Automatic annotation (TrEMBL), chains A, B:
Amino-acid positions noted as binding Mg(2+) in the UniProt annotation, renumbered to this chain: 61, 130, 133
Gene (name only): rnc
UniProt KW keywords: Cytoplasm, Endonuclease, Hydrolase, Magnesium, Metal-binding, mRNA processing, Nuclease, RNA-binding, rRNA processing, rRNA-binding, tRNA processing
Record lineage: Bacteria, Pseudomonadati, Bacteroidota, Flavobacteriia, Flavobacteriales
Active site as annotated: 65, 133
This protein's name: Ribonuclease 3
Length: 246, 246
């Protein structure tokens, strides 16, 4: 995809492709397409607006970073009523860590929208997280707080945030499930298959069976994540039994 | 005022006083009074909620700090289209500096609501800024983003934020006005008087006259601020003349 030729002309074929691509990722229709385009303009392209101000995603990144922090803060405030200010701050920095944001941007394959003079293969990992933040900034300007909250909830919190795992109390749900099965002398099977469906990006589905019975299903952007998610579901389903295992 | 005896009982005389006091400061009616009460509970009182979690303003401070940063970010994004990410970050830290937040909390006289075992005279300056942030956190939980935005706009941005002054381009509008008057051989007079009106806190009004004619009026929580604000208004009114002064 290449919008270089007509970045703010809103009726081209390229705009149509961008609109469809971005709508899939957002889960809603953008109102001001221009602000989303800006979220993918790398400074190397040296664009300027009509007043001579540089046009790239860095200012949106500043905005998105702040909004992301606020929404994660509210989530943690509600989710961890016993955590003090220091604890909440620590958990928030884990969730919005550079590494984590890069992973999010990569999973959404945001880099395919990036416009740059530098070949994409020359970018480091941070470009993924940076445009993810810029995208949040664009949503904020285009549709306001509520849409940001929903987007962050759907794309960050729901799929990735697990307080127990962040606290280091649970390292892997899969290993907990396997351990339990071995102790209980039960067979288990992770059946993994590609299941991209209507999604903008590749997805995998997993069926976890224990003693031949399907205990949990899950979908995610990698096999490992899908297995972990299915294991977590099975873990909660089995929790009563597992807690009595010792 | 003392709510110690019945902090979450919602029909007492003390609650009524708190409701009226806080409504004046907020500029709207709170829905969940309890969350505002929490914004003024100092940890020294050692309160716990029904689940044994500590009940004080520190968690709300965490939330309010994030929300304040987001709203100031959006303001700067719109207000300074030529500022890059680094510039925006620097300006934001000036606006939400500890010193500035303490001043805001002090101007609103928030400390009168604070419940603590430590005598208020023993607190340092930071208590003012901390409860200001906690109050923003309470608004966020009670009424959501829009009300936070309006509160911060009315209480922080409109009265205090001046980009030119923050940039150090203008140190004092009053001195610019005086300098101009002296060069132009004009007389000037700052007529200051108390004008608290219906406000929850003491206010001062200023009339700035040049050659006997009232050029600008302003109101603020200190004489100095009111003078500065009136000078700024006069400065913009006179700007054409002043720009030709050399």
């Amino acid at each position: 995809m290449n919008f270089r030729s007509n970045i703010f002309n809103s009726h081209s074929k390229e705009d149509g492709d961008f609109f469809l691509g971005i709508t899939k990722i957002l889960g809603f229709k953008p109102k001001m397409l221009g602000v989303y385009k800006k979220a993918f303009l790398h400074r190397s392209i040296n664009k300027k607006d009509e007043n001579g101000n540089p046009l790239n995603y860095e200012r949106l990144e500043f905005l998105g970073d702040a909004m992301l922090g606020t929404i994660i803060s509210k989530y943690l405030y509600n989710e961890v009523p016993g955590g003090d200010e220091g604890y909440l701050t620590k958990m928030r920095s884990k969730i919005v860590s550079r590494k984590h944001l890069n992973e999010l941007g990569k999973d959404l394959n945001l880099i395919k929208f990036v416009e740059s003079r530098i070949p994409k293969s020359h970018f480091g990992d941070n470009i993924h997280g940076n445009v993810f933040e810029a995208l949040v900034g664009a949503i904020y300007l285009d549709r306001g707080y509520k849409y940001c909250e929903k987007f962050i909830n759907d794309r960050v919190i729901e799929p990735y945030v697990d307080i127990e795992q962040l606290e280091g109390k649970v390292i892997s749900y899969k290993s907990l499930v396997i351990e339990w099965c071995q102790k209980q002398k039960k067979t288990f099977n992770y059946n993994v298959y590609e299941d991209t469906g209507n999604d903008a990006l590749k997805h995998f589905a997993v069926k976890l069976s224990i003693d031949g019975r399907v205990m949990a299903k899950a979908r995610a952007t990698s096999k490992k994540k899908a297995e972990e998610r299915a294991s977590k579901r099975a873990y909660y389903a089995l929790q009563d039994k597992m807690e009595n295992r010792n």
